[in-house]
Amino acid sequence: MGKPLGVGVVGVGNISGQYFENIPKLTNLKLIGVADLDVERAKKVAAAQGVQAFTVQEIYTAPNVDVILNLTLPQSHAEVTLKALQNGKHVYLEKPFALTMEEARPVIEYAASNNLRIGCAPDTFLGTGIQTSKYLLDNGAIGGAFAASAAWSAPGHERWHPSPQFYYLNGAGPLFDMGPYYLTALVTLLGPVVNVIGNTTRSNRERKIHTGDLAGTRIAVEVDTHISAILTHASGAQSTIMVSFEIWGSKLPTIEIYGTKGTISVPDPNRFSDPAFLFTEEEPEWKEVKPLAGYVDAGRGFGLSDMATAMEENRQHRASGELGLHVLEIMEAILKSGNGSARELIKSKVQPSSLVLLAQPTIAD
Ligand SMILES: NC(=O)c1ccc[n+]([C@@H]2O[C@H](COP(=O)([O-])OP(=O)(O)OC[C@H]3O[C@@H](n4cnc5c(N)ncnc54)[C@H](O)[C@@H]3O)[C@@H](O)[C@H]2O)c1
Asked: pLDDT by residue (tens digit) across 192-238?
C-alpha cells in the first residue's frame, strides 16, 4: 500500500463522529485536519482528534490534504465540493450529491475533466447486508428479479436531532434525506433507473424541535413529507418506494426483491451489517443468510476508503459521484412527477458496481 490519503473534513456536526470513529481503522486514510463555519466547533473537534483546526479558507489549500470529506449540510454540498475540486483536491461527500441536477452537473463535469475523484455517500451498500443480497441475486437464488418494494418512515427527525431545521428545507425531506439509502440499494441490486412516476403530499402537523438548546422552537416546513414512487429499471424490473416523515409506527419491510423463484428480504440500507433473509419456491420459509459478500463490520468512511483503494488500483470506486448523481436525478424526477408532470425520464447512466468479495481483504485492519 502507498501513502495513506490525507483527509481534511469540512463540516464537523452530528454525523462527523461516525467518520472519526472509523478513519483510524482504515489504514489507507489519514485524518489531517478539520474546518467548520463554526470555528469554535472545529477547534474543539480538532483537539479531540489530535489534528489541526483549519479555517474554511485554509483547508482547501492545505498541502497534506489530498481529499476533502464534505460533511456539510445539503445546501452547501455542491459549493464546498466544487471549491475543493478547484483547489485540486479529490472529494468524498455526504448525501445527497446536491440540491438539484443543475447544481450538480458542473461539479461532476469539473471533476471528470480535471482527473479528480468524487465519492458520494451512502456507503452502507458496501456492507455485508446489501452485498450479500447482491451475491444472492447475481447467483440466481431467486431466479430473474422483476420487482422490488422499499419503505422507510418515521414521525420526523426533530424528535432526536438537536438542529433538525434543514430536514424540512428544499434538498432534504424524507426523499432527499433517506431516499439515497433506498435508491442506492435499489440501483445496486436491480441496476440503473430509466423512468419514474411520483406522488407527494404532507399533513398539517406542526413541527417542533424536541431536544437540545432549541427545544420547543417551531420548524418551517418547505417540502412534502410523504413521498411515493414507481421506478422502472433499465432491466425492465419495477420498484415501488415510499419514504415518509409522517408515520408514527409501521411494520412494512425495508426492502424486498421479488424474483421468479423467490424473494430476498434485504436488510435496512441505512445500516451496514444486518442479515438478509431468503424465501424460495424450493424452500418456502424465511431463512437467514450468513454474510456472503461485503466489507465486514463496515461503517461510515468505508466508501472513502474504497475510493482510496480504487485510486491505487486504477479502477472505478463503488460509492461514486456518478451513482450519487444518478440517485439525485431519480429524486428530482420523483418530485417533478409528483408535482403534476407525467412519467419522468432519467438520462444519467451508471455502471453497476462490482461485488465486494467477502474473501477480499477488508479495508480495515
Ligand atoms: N445526522 C445524521 O445522522 C446523518 C446521517 C447520515 C448522513 N447525514 C448527512 O450528513 C450531512 C451533515 O449532517 P449533520 O447531521 O452532521 O448536520 P449538522 O448540522 O449536525 O452539521 C453540519 C456542520 O456543517 C457545518 N457547515 C455547514 N455549511 C458549511 C460550509 N459551507 N463550510 C463549512 N462548514 C459548514 C455546520 O456549521 C455544521 O457544523 C448532511 O448532508 C446529512 O444529510 C447525516
From this structure: 999 999 999 999 999 999 999 999 999 999 999 999 999 999 999 99
Query: Domains (ranges, CATH) in the chain?
Result: 5-120 (3.40.50.720), 127-294+327-345 (3.30.360.10)
| One-letter amino acid for residue 289 of the chain | V
What number does the ligand 1 atom closest to the CA of 77 have?
Answer: 41
Confidence of residue 29 (pLDDT cuts 50, 70, 90): very high
Three-class DSSP category at 295:
strand
Q: Are 219 and 127 in contact (CB under 8 A)?
A: no
Query: Over 60: is that where the pLDDT of 330 sits?
Result: yes
Residue with CA nearest ligand 1 atom 18: 13
C-alpha cell at 59: 483547508
The total number of residues shown for the chain amounts to 365
* Whether the CB of 34 sits within 6 Å of ligand 1: no
Residue 74 beta carbon below 6 angstroms from any ligand 1 atom: yes
Cell of 58: 485554509
| Model pLDDT, residue 360 | 53
**Does ligand 1 have an atom closer than 6 angstroms to the CB of 214?**
no
| pTM of this prediction exceeds 0.90 | yes
Backbone angles phi, psi at 17, to 5 degrees: -55, -40
Of ligand 1's listed atoms, the one at least distance from the Cα of 72 is: 24
14 lines ligand 1 (CB under 6 A): yes
Residue among 43, 73, 175, 271 to mutate when testing ligand 1 (max atoms within 8 A of CB): 73
